[in-house]
């Protein structure tokens, strides 16, 4: 009996002395993707276990983090971009600096088969989408909750405020509204449900997406089924950061370091359709053909923080949506 008690005490002592595996909790937008292999690599190399929380589109996620900043829902955030980063900075939800992880160019995509079957010319520029021949063909995402939506809203203010061009953006958005544009809640809804050129086979052949999206819409011969309009796009940069008041900031920094490493950076094009911030990473062959970056960028000099509320108020007035 004494021997049995001694064994039990020894087992309890060993279990209490053995190190506990710590968990790093990552909050990310719904488009975040990481393979099981990469998770296993991170957990093996760092000694931390990875837990993932998805929090909607970037706008919804940022708002949630602001509301929970005193008791954050994670240790580290991925996916706050340069349209919503001013909100994060102003609200002080990040401990230290945001680290750039990847970038992508927000451009319209068109369904090539639709335009061929209907003998319709592909628009040379997105400003043409208000023309009658493109009526009821376009879907965009809501800038109140969608980072691509806000990126394009900013792009219209950068491009259309040029006095040599068409009138101020609010009038262009009114014309687009009257031309039958659909405003989807998120990029995922717009691209995967409403866009006719994606797996959802929706009814809209023009969608607000990314210059890299056509690389993943090819036929059996490898020919693209969609095309990006590469003029005057908005370059979107995504960041990661340690959340203020995080329970495990050391683990958060370890995951950020992993995201900046070769393994994660090399996986970004095929996992999330974005360009790695590490320019030394070789892009997939399909990207060389069908995922070219934009020919021209607009909006990179804008003060988004100072103008965001006004731009959203204009948009919400045009489309009668709540912020």
Verbal overview:
It contains twelve helices and ten strands. Helix 6 (147-160) packs across helix 12 and helix 7 packs parallel to helix 12. With 323 residues, the chain is an alpha/beta fold. The chain has two domains: 21-103 and 237-286, D-Maltodextrin-Binding Protein, domain 2; 104-234 and 294-319, 3-Layer(aba) Sandwich (D-Maltodextrin-Binding Protein, domain 2), CATH 3.40.190.10. The longest helix has 16 residues, at 2-17.
Main sheet overview: 10 strands, mixed
Number of structurally distinct domains: 2
Radius of gyration: 23 Å
Strand content: 15-25%
Number of E-type strands: 10
- What class would the helix/strand composition place it in? alpha/beta
Q: Give the H and E element order.
A: HEHEHEHEHEHHEHEEEHHEHH
Give the overall silhouette. Answer: globular
CATH topology description of the largest domain: D-Maltodextrin-Binding Protein, domain 2
Average of pLDDT? 89
Which homologous superfamily in CATH is the superfamily of the largest domain?
Periplasmic binding protein-like II
Distance between the termini: 70 Å
Given this structure, which CATH class of the largest domain is correct?
A: Alpha Beta
Provide tags for this entry.
323 residues, alpha/beta, D-Maltodextrin-Binding Protein, domain 2, 2 domains, 10-stranded mixed sheet, 12 helices, globular
In short:
It contains twelve helices and ten strands. It is an alpha/beta fold and 323 residues long.
Show the helix and strand layout.
Layout: H1 2-17, E1 23-28, H2 36-46, E2 49-54, H3 58-67, E3 76-81, H4 85-91, E4 99-111, H5 112-117, E5 138-141, H6 147-160, H7 169-178, E6 182-184, H8 187-194, E7 206-210, E8 226-228, E9 234-242, H9 249-259, H10 262-272, E10 275-276, H11 285-290, H12 304-319
Parallel strand pairs: 1-2, 1-3, 5-6, 5-7
Antiparallel strand pairs: 3-9, 4-7, 4-8, 4-9, 4-10
């Amino acid at each position: 009996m004494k021997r049995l008690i001694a064994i039990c005490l020894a087992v309890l002592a060993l279990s209490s002395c053995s190190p506990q595996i710590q968990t790093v909790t990552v909050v990310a937008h719904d488009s975040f993707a990481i393979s099981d292999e990469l998770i296993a690599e991170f957990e093996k190399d760092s000694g931390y276990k990875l837990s993932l929380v998805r929090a909607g589109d970037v706008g919804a996620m940022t708002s949630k983090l602001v509301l929970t900043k005193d008791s954050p829902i994670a240790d580290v955030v991925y996916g706050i971009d340069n349209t919503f980063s001013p909100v994060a900075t102003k609200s002080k939800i990040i401990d230290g600096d945001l680290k750039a992880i990847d970038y992508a160019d927000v451009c319209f995509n068109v369904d090539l088969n639709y335009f061929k079957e209907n003998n319709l010319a592909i628009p040379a520029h997105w400003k043409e989408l208000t023309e009658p021949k493109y009526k009821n063909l376009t879907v965009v995402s809501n800038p109140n909750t969608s980072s691509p939506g806000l990126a394009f809203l900013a792009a219209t203010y950068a491009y259309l405020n040029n006095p040599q061009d068409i009138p101020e953006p609010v009038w262009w958005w009114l014309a687009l509204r009257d031309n039958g544009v659909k405003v989807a809640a998120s990029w995922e809804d717009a691209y995967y449900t409403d866009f006719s050129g994606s797996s959802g086979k929706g009814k809209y052949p023009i969608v607000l997406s990314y210059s890299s999206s056509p690389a993943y819409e090819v036929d059996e011969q490898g020919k693209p089924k969609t095309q990006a309009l590469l003029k005057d796009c908005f370059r979107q940069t995504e960041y990661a950061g340690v959340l203020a008041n995080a329970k495990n900031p050391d683990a958060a920094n370890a995951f950020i370091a992993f995201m900046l490493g070769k393994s994660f950076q090399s996986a970004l094009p095929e996992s999330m359709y974005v360009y790695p911030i590490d320019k030394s990473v070789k892009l997939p062959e399909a990207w060389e053909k069908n995922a070219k970056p934009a020919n021209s960028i607009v909006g990179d000099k804008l003060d988004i923080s100072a103008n965001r509320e006004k731009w959203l108020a204009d948009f919400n007035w045009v489309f009668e949506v709540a912020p």
